[in-house]
Amino acid sequence: MDRQPVLEGERLYLRPLTEADWPALYAVASDRELWARHPSHDRWQEPVFRAFFDDALAGGGALAIIDKHAPSGVEGASGAVIGSSRFQAYDPADGGVVEIGWSFLARSFWGGGYNAEMKRLMLEHAFASVARVVFRVGAENVISRGAMANIGGRLTGETFIAERAGQAMLHVIYEITRESFATGPLAR
User: Fold this and answer.
1) Ordered structural domains, the chain, with CATH
2) pTM for the model
């Protein structure tokens, strides 16, 4: 599976994240309110976000999310960086599984269908190679849990504990299968 594809939708363009994306992506991530209900509520701080960003680059699978219709502020470039997401933990065994996660969008893009478009593009790409996509969500992250319900995620009953912002946090796992995607809210 290509974990760093170029994907294009009606309003969004997803491409591999690069070091050159740091200034624009940190400008989005430095919004303290973006992380207020997130398990990593301190991710707006530059050193914390730098570690997140460096991990994304090192792990492969990270994508920059571009609004195709917003000016970028970069000479000759079109579209502003409005967030990022990742394909992680790809396992080809038993039909294949990959995680989609570590996603965030600028708050000005919340509630307008941008998350659904981003996830549709990523899921369509993933299901060409895998039978199942998983999402790991902080148990108390009501925004992300609501977003999972909106895109057809099914709570699996699996949980795990991960350290976030210096504390052990319970996470739950959602899944979307190739079959449930084909008949779910993101189906075309």
Assistant:
1) 7-183 (3.40.630.30)
2) 0.93
